[in-house]
Design a protein that fits this description.
There is one protein chain. By secondary structure, the protein is of the alpha/beta class. It has helices at residues 11-22, 42-49, 69-79, 98-106, 124-141, 157-164, 169-174, 201-215, 218-247, 255-286, 305-309, and strands spanning 2-4, 31-35, 58-63, 84-87, 111-116, 153-156, 184-189, 295-300. The chain has two domains: 2-215 and 289-309, Spore Coat Polysaccharide Biosynthesis Protein SpsA, Chain A (Alpha-Beta Complex), CATH 3.90.550.10; 218-286. Helix 5 (124-141) packs parallel to helix 8 (201-215).
């Protein structure tokens, strides 16, 4: 499974090399290519590769608008039919690692991650924010976030079927390494990437926040607890103000009224936030949104090896 965007320059050579790698590994295979709303002629080149005389067993899914990387990957996984599905990026990953990944999968691993040790290390700020994210994730979820979970991975059909049962499978796919019950394995290799994309800090922060708030109610639940504590403190402060007014003789004029007014307003604000937070929690638990993607065009290779292997005979007219 390959996600591409504006990749017309290397598309033909990348897919041809991928086909050459897969042929000796498996008896039957399929390459699902998801075009993430390219602006160049990527789709036209893909169409040319699927015509007669082109590459076999290629399925192309062209999206109408760009989506995030995990959603685009799940579009391909949702349309793949193989017993094992590998998520592969030709620009950063090495197809030679697929043999070791498939061997681990056949040995019983449900998820196999392939880590390229030649990929450039992240900057100091990126690593510091990553450590803070892992701390928050452990605090909210009660489990350690597995950071060594690269995008180059191979998953079994049972994993795909289970994730499909979730209302938002793309979110579940993001935290695949944290899901319990799956046998995981790691493959390490060294291959300098052709064009390692820099880790964009803004996109990573956005992805981390979505991962935190989409998989647990703990952040919003923390807000409701803070609202409850704030409302309680304002009630206690109001009692303190009344006690000072009754027990002290030298209270400044207007201090009691102003303090009670301030504490009363903050109490109402905290109470409103508490009620709104609880309603939002209930809505997010019950709400089921529609699909986050839409496939505009779909076409397959004219040469599908699997179709020739099917035991189907056309019946004569009138038979």
């Amino acid at each position: 499974m390959v996600v591409v965007r504006d990749a017309a320059a290397h598309l033909s050579s990348d897919l041809t090399a991928l086909v050459a790698t897969l042929r000796p590994l498996v008896a039957d295979y399929e390459i699902v290519v998801v075009d993430n709303a390219s602006r160049d002629d990527t789709v036209e080149r893909l169409r040319g590769l699927t015509l007669d005389g082109g590459l076999p067993n290629v399925q192309v899914l062209a999206l109408t608008s760009p989506v995030d990387a995990d959603t685009a990957v799940w579009v391909g996984l949702d349309n793949a039919i193989g017993d094992f599905v590998a998520v592969f990026d030709p620009a950063e990953d090495a197809a030679d690692a697929l043999a070791a990944m498939l061997e681990r999968a056949r040995a019983g691993a449900d998820v196999v991650f392939a880590l390229n040790e030649a990929r450039p290390a992240a900057g100091m700020l990126y690593r510091a924010l990553g450590a803070a994210f892992r701390l928050l994730y452990a605090l909210f979820h009660g489990v350690r976030f597995v950071s060594d979970a690269p995008g180059f991975r191979l998953v079994s059909r049972s994993v795909v079927n289970l994730v499909l049962k979730h209302p938002t499978p793309a979110f579940t796919y993001r935290q695949l390494a944290q899901l319990a019950g799956f046998t995981q394995a790691h493959v390490r290799y060294t291959s300098p990437p052709r064009a390692a994309l820099p880790r964009r800090l803004g996109a990573s922060i956005d992805r981390g926040l979505r991962l935190l708030v989409s998989t647990t109610r703990a952040p919003l639940r923390s807000v409701t607890w803070l609202s409850t504590v704030a409302a309680s403190l304002n009630v206690l402060y109001s009692g303190y103000v009344v006690a000072i007014y009754l027990l002290k003789d030298d209270v400044a004029p207007g201090w009691t009224t102003l303090s009670l007014q301030t504490s009363g307003m903050f109490f109402l604000i905290s109470l409103i936030l508490l009620v709104l937070g609880e309603y939002v929690l209930q809505l997010t638990s019950a709400l089921r949104t529609g699909p986050t993607w839409h496939v505009a065009r779909e076409f397959n290779s004219a040469n599908i090896v699997r179709q020739r292997q099917l035991n189907v005979v056309d019946a004569p007219d009138g038979g």
